[in-house]
Amino acid sequence: MIRLRDVAVRYGGFLAARDITFDVGAGEAFGLVGESGSGKSTVLRAIAGLIPHAEGSVELAGQKMPASRNRAQRRLVQMVFQDPYGSLHPSQTVDQTLAAPLRVQGLPGGEKRIAEVLAEVGLGPEHRFRFPHQLSGGQRQRVAIARALVVAPPVLLLDEPTSALDVSVQAEILNLLSRLRHEHKLTLLMVSHDLAVIAHLCGRVGVMQHGEMVELTSAEALAAGDVRHPHTRDLLRATAGLDRRGVGDGVTP
User: Is this prediction's pTM over 0.85?
Assistant: First the structure.
């Protein structure tokens, strides 16, 4: 469903990401993890088409994406951002926020679809005409997820979707995303600096450092500490919630 080949992103003379190559199968949940500034969010934005000057090849659902995408190509992938308050317009109600993508895509049945997608993310009709400041952080992120889902994309990109939330709310959002993935057969690509969060949702994980993918592994290998690159071992040591046995001595570099 997602195929990247030699993707690179430059900001002036700075190379933010280089030689990024990986595939994500239909219905799979794939994670990109790394410290701040490693280039993981840059890769996500290149996939979403938010960085038109990205080099290399990005394919979605078997289609090679051009620098300027049409309406149908943009509908293939939607994105949930890190800050659930900053990503929502403060002067728009939930109803207006969810109606906008439908209007842009020219999709019919807006009233029914908005009610459906609110129910899918666990929000009731009483939330529909509230403003972002009238919602909790978890509710705002549910609205952001609903906005991404309202046009029924096959691919959902998640940029640190739980990092701004309390721990208990993080678990609720991760469980919601897991349920939505299975119910709608979504392909998920999630970015995080937290290996425990990634391992909860994703079966395969790419580890990034200094704009490069330094290791491609599985959630099971991460939990067992069976990793090869020194940077991955460093991330494991810094991450709570994983079984770190085997991390360090005895692990093949």
Answer: yes
